[in-house]
Write a structure and sequence with these properties.
Biased composition (Basic and acidic residues): 63-77
Number of domains: 1
CATH architecture: Sandwich
Helix content: under 10%
Organism: Sphingomonas aliaeris
Region (Disordered): 63-84
Protein name: DUF2141 domain-containing protein
Radius of gyration: 14 Å
Distance between the termini: 22 Å
Number of helices: 2
Structural class: mainly beta
Pfam family, one: DUF2141
Shape: globular
C-alpha cells in the first residue's frame, strides 16, 4: 500500500507511519503496530510511504510529523490517520480514539493508496496547515 501524506506545515523533522490490523481495539496502540516506518520529511515533492501489508484485510494507519525531530510526541507535532477523521482537543485530552469505521480501509491484491492529511493544533482545535 502507498500512504500518501499531505498538509505538512514544514519540511523539517521526521514522519512516522504505523500500520494496524486485527481487532479495532488495538488501533493506535504503539505496542500493537504491525509495521512502523520513520523517515526524514523530504524537502520537496509528494510524501509517499510504501508499506507491505501482511495479507489482504482491513487495516488502519496513523501518521505523526515530528516537526522538531526530537523523537518525542509534543504540541508542535502534527498527526493524522487513514480516513482523515476529525479530531478535537477533547479527544486528545481524554485519549479518545476515532471510531473504527472512520479509519479502516481494505487492502486487496494490488496497490492500495491511503491518503492522510496531517493536522496541527491551532487554537483549540486540530486543522490542516496551509498547502504543502
Amino acid at each position: 500500500m502507498a500512504v500518501r501524506i499531505t498538509g505538512f506545515r514544514s519540511r523539517a523533522g521526521q514522519v512516522r507511519v504505523r500500520l494496524f490490523g486485527g481487532s479495532p481495539s488495538t488501533y493506535f496502540d504503539k505496542r500493537q503496530a504491525l509495521v512502523r516506518i520513520e523517515r526524514p520529511v523530504p524537502n520537496t515533492g509528494t510524501v509517499t510511504i510504501c508499506i507491505v501489508a501482511p495479507k489482504p484485510g482491513i487495516y488502519a494507519v496513523d501518521v505523526r510529523h515530528d516537526e522538531n525531530g526530537n523523537g518525542k510526541t509534543d504540541r508542535s507535532d502534527g498527526g493524522g490517520a487513514s480516513g482523515n477523521p476529525r479530531i478535537s482537543l477533547m479527544d486528545m485530552l481524554f485519549s479518545r480514539k476515532p471510531k473504527p469505521g472512520a479509519v479502516q480501509f481494505t487492502v486487496r491484491t494490488g496497490q492500495t493508496v491511503v491518503p492522510v492529511t496531517v493536522m496541527y493544533l491551532s487554537g483549540g482545535s486540530f486543522r490542516p496547515a496551509a498547502a504543502d
